[in-house]
Design brief:
Elements lengths: L2 H6 L8 H4 L4 H14 L7 H5 L4 H13 L8 H14 L4 E6 L7 E6 L1 E3 L5 E3 L3 H5 E2 L19 E5 L6 E5 L2 E12 L8 H21 L9 E15 H5 L2 H6 L24 H16 L4 E6 L5 E6 L2 E2 H21 L2 E4 L12 E10 L12 H20 L1 H7 L3 H6 L12 E2 L1 H12 L10 E3 L9 E3 L10 E3 L4 E7 L5 H28 L5 H17 L11 H9 L8 H4 L6 H9 L5 H54 L5 H28 L6 H29 L10 H6 L2
Parallel strand pairs: 1-8, 15-18
Antiparallel strand pairs: 1-2, 3-4, 5-6, 6-8, 7-8, 9-11, 9-12, 9-13, 9-14, 10-11, 14-19, 16-17, 18-19
Helix pairs in contact: 8-12, 8-17, 11-12, 13-17, 13-18, 16-18, 17-18, 22-23, 22-24, 23-24
The chain binds adenosine-5'-diphosphate and magnesium ion.
């Protein structure tokens, strides 16, 4: 048995010594070796692949994976056999095509490697055809009307650019092959296909920019890079199980505020509790095996809130890895007695959960195109890419807002803890200054780093980034990438990145075409620079309004944004329909990302998911109010009434108890009225999903708020021993 396999058979408690004590330099070097053994051990990539495939096949695969060349399907048989042998050696009996349907989660249909030979004897078999194409029944996945139930045929297609991996589930191990999922008619029914198409759209347009500046030598394509920071809550699993709202909806639909929240800022970056560290250690180990480069871990702002961030990767792989990461977090939590909450707002009044989407563009030779150059033409090239993002954000702020709209994220955006619902760009002072000059037709360069003197001779001089950070901005430039900070904690990142890529591809196309035309008009040597400056200056004049470097939480910004005519899209019902506009459909179609049917289907599915989520939440709320809150309230009201009668009979005044009883009965009345209104709202029907979602957002949710308010008031009166579920204080401070 190889070392790798021996390691894989070990349990989480036998983490290597080197990894456990990474603090000293000498050990860090050893740790490198330990990561080497561990990293990607359960993926069919790197050594696992090289050891098993011939050089010709490896070269062909490499051309597809690294340089985006078309897949030569004649290699599939050899790859499939090698993959099967490797998987069986690692304890698999089954394989599955793993994909991301429009539900936003992942799907898998398992098949065993079993086949029978002509004598009826069992043998393990996996053909190239089975690797390349699967045929799950597409009728039970949401298609947004692209397919009817009787039009069931759908295909999964191997994505060779995202490594196959072995998923552990208890003692079982399954070979998972990342795939795209399309209908019999070739329309995408998943999140991966449009993301990959949008990457190609960016690549095509970005290559034109590189050619324009003469920087395309040796570059075959450009890809987007993605690094996601995932926040999450960890609470006691037994407590979570006692709350139907957490079990069913992933968030609490009621719960009075604890006396302490995060006012003291004493949790953020605080020391990580040992039991949480043990959980994080196991998560990282599982992620390393899957080739997911987990890098950063820390306490987040709210009590029981934490963050994990892997290193960035190519967007398609990062998006698959992000889905896997959420899955690993959930499973590991349960092994440690925790429930891991990824919902955007598990606790009202407590900071919610986001996913920061660090995004850039890079050549296949590793040059980050959003890294400022040292001046001259390379800086103009950098500014061309930046201006394309400025233009894309300004032209498509509404659909980018739409791409992150969901029932959960509606609670979070604009709540002064997360970016507001207005999309604007933070450039920082340095880049902001350069863009201002550019708008005026002048060029300016900036150094990517300056020095920061700490004023003590024994302390090192620090390299300072070209701009400060702005935690209030939804879309911030941070030195060499943009951070789209408004994505929800539960979201699959493929969709917002598809929209972002397509919008940027469109602006790269526009700007390059304009510069090319301007260059063709002139014949002087400096015409490229002059043409570029003229075009970028125009772009900034038209679209610079989307740049805002102040406090995005302030009322002044909201007033200013209104003056600048920037879209303020409060909730899903306002934001999602913007993706239905004709010019939007045209853009997706022009850049080969989605046709109009594919786009409209996606919006329908997202609308349905919103409506269903809220229906489940409202139903859960009513059930908890009826079966948990009211019975406790009645018990305590009876106790209070009996106490009042007995106290008065004894000739003692009982003002306080009477006041409690009056308040309790008033809250119970309010609860009853709220419930009646909510029940009526739940019965509301509408054939048009958009207006139905509008009704839910604007009419039904306010009734839910009323019910919640009454329940929380009752919680404040009923004594702890009569309260039927764990409170916010229990979950956030005693987990
Ligand atoms: P923060 O300080 O914003 O909390 P973290 O260090 O937690 O940042 O995470 C930053 C993320 O940005 C990481 O996932 C990192 O790999 C990613 N990142 C860095 N450079 C790039 C890049 N060029 N493209 C995409 N993501 C990047
Ligand atoms: Mg960040």
């Amino acid at each position: 048995m190889s070392r790798t396999v021996a390691y894989l058979d070990s349990t989480s408690s036998t983490r290597t010594e080197a990894y456990r004590s990474m603090s000293s330099d000498a050990v860090v070097r050893d740790a490198g070796a330990a990561f080497g053994d561990q990293f990607g051990a359960l993926t069919f990539s790197g050594e696992n692949m090289r050891r098993r495939l011939g050089s010709a096949v490896l070269e062909q695969l490499d051309r597809t994976v690294q340089y985006g060349e078309a897949l030569n399907s004649s290699i599939a048989d050899e790859v499939a056999t090698a993959m099967k042998d490797w998987a069986i050696e690692n304890g698999c009996t089954h394989y599955c095509h793993w994909f991301q349907p429009l539900t936003g989660s992942t799907a898998e249909k398992h098949d065993s490697f079993l086949n029978l030979d002509h004598n009826g004897q069992p043998l393990a078999e996996f053909s190239g055809d089975a690797l390349i194409c699967g045929e799950p029944d597409a009728s039970s996945f949401p298609s947004g009307g692209v397919r009817d139930t009787w039009e069931a045929r759908g295909y999964t297609a191997w994505d060779p650019t995202s490594p196959a991996f072995i998923m552990r589930n208890g003692g079982e191990r399954t070979l998972c092959i990342p795939t795209a999922f399309v209908s019999w008619t070739g329309e995408s029914l998943d999140l991966k296909t449009p993301l990959m198409r949008s990457n190609e759209a960016i690549s095509k347009q970005a290559m034109r920019v590189l050619r324009l500046f003469g920087n395309d030598a040796g570059v075959c394509n450009v890809y987007t890079t993605l690094g996601c920071e995932q926040e999450y809550f960890l609470i006691d699993e037994d407590m979570a199980a006692m709350r139907p709202d957490l079990s069913m909806c992933g968030r609490t639909v009621m719960g009075a505020q604890p006396p302490k929240g995060h006012q003291l800022d004493d949790h953020y970056f605080g020391s990580i509790p040992p039991e949480v560290l043990a959980f994080m250690g196991e998560v990282e180990e599982r992620l390393y095996e899957l080739g997911i480069p987990a890098k950063t871990r820390h306490n987040e702002v709210a009590p029981r809130q934490f963050e994990i961030a892997p290193l960035f990767e190519r967007a398609n792989v990062a998006s698959d890895h992000q889905q896997l990461l959420m899955n690993v977090l959930k499973r590991a939590a349960s092994r440690h007695g925790f429930s891991c909450l990824l919902h955007e707002k598990p606790f009202a009044g407590v900071n919610g959960t986001g996913k920061h989407n660090n995004w850039s563009m890079s050549t296949d030779t590793g040059h980050n195109l959003l890294s400022p150059g040292k001046g001259g033409e390379s800086n103009l090239q950098f500014l061309t890419f930046v201006c394309a993002v400025v233009r894309a954000l300004d032209m498509h702020a509404d659909i980018l807002r739409g791409s992150i709209a969901s029932a959960g994220n509606d609670h979070r955006l604009g709540a002064n803890e997360a970016p507001p619902a207005i999309l604007s760009m933070y450039t920082g002072a340095e880049l902001g200054g350069v863009l201002e000059k550019l708008e005026a037709g002048e060029t300016a360069c900036f150094d990517s780093k300056t020095e920061l003197d700490l004023g003590s001779t024994v302390m090192p001089t620090l390299e300072r980034h070209p701009g400060d950070r702005n935690r209030t901005s939804p879309f911030a430039f941070i030195g060499n990438r943009f951070e789209f900070r408004a994505i929800g904690g539960l979201a699959a990142v493929a969709w917002p990145n598809t929209v972002l890529n397509t919008a940027v591809a469109q602006s790269l196309d526009y700007i390059t075409t304009a510069i090319e035309a301007a260059v063709a008009d002139g014949d002087t040597k400096g015409s490229l620079e002059a043409s570029c400056v003229a075009v970028l200056s125009d772009v900034l004049k038209q679209h610079g309004r989307v740049i805002f470097n102040g406090d995005n939480y302030s009322q002044e910004w909201h007033d200013e944004a209104a003056k600048r005519d920037l879209p303020v899209l409060r909730g899903t019902a306002d934001a999602l329909p913007t993706l239905r506009r004709e010019d939007v459909a045209e853009m997706f179609d022009t850049y080969g990302v989605m046709n109009a049917r594919e786009l409209s289907a996606r919006i329908d599915v997202l609308m349905e998911i919103y409506a269903t989520t809220l229906t489940i939440e409202a139903g859960t709320m009513l059930q908890m109010a009826d079966r948990m809150v009211r019975p406790s309230a009645v018990r305590y009201a009876t106790e209070l009434a009996e106490s009042c009668t007995a106290t008065e009979a004894a000739g003692v005044p009982c003002g306080a108890a009477k006041a409690d009883l009056t308040a309790l009965v008033a809250a119970m009345d309010a609860l009853g009225q709220g419930e009646t209104a909510l029940r009526a709202a739940l019965d509301h029907e509408d054939d048009c999903v958009d207006t139905h979602v509008g009704f839910i957002q604007n009419t039904m949710i306010p009734h839910m708020d009323t019910v919640r308010e009454a329940c929380d008031a009752i919680e404040g009166i009923v004594p702890a021993d009569l309260w039927p579920m764990p409170t916010y204080t229990d979950m956030l401070f005693n987990s």
